[in-house]
Amino acid sequence: MVEKIILWSLLIIGIALFFFSLRKPPIKDWILIFLLTSFFSIFLGVLVVEEKMLEYPISFLSKYFSSSLLYEYLLLPVVCIYFYQKTYYSRYPDIILRCTLYTSALTIIEVLLERYTDLIEYHTWTWIHTFISIFFLMMFNRILMQLINRQER
Predict the structure, then answer these.
(1) Mean per-residue pLDDT of the chain
(2) At CB < 8 A and 24+ separation, what contacts does 108-111 make?
(3) Radius of gyration, CA atoms only, the chain
(4) Per-residue pLDDT tens over the stretch 53-66
């Protein structure tokens, strides 16, 4: 029961943060970073779940999807939008520092959810895997967006 409340709360927060993130230009960049993150995270998420490294015992549409749609299609992409917005004009040392902070926050939340709820269950997966995969995904998307925007100018 508590898990369902957490899921619905995260869904509402995620949707609100998504719409709030689109309030200022360049909106096409924010949407593109959202879609890129969704694409890569769903790909990695399915691999991890299918390899039985972790599982989501309670999730939305668990009858049809074994990975976490809420996290991979909404929450992580929204966090990546905010990361990208905050580092839009930054240099690499600041980008790396902010990426570390955002990744740390997401990792801590995941560890707490794994430890105290039935929303996620680690098998061979650890918090270190989470940290490294999120960090590299966020940095990869950040660099990719830089390349895309450089080609536009």
Answers:
(1) 93
(2) none
(3) 16
(4) 999 988 887 777 77
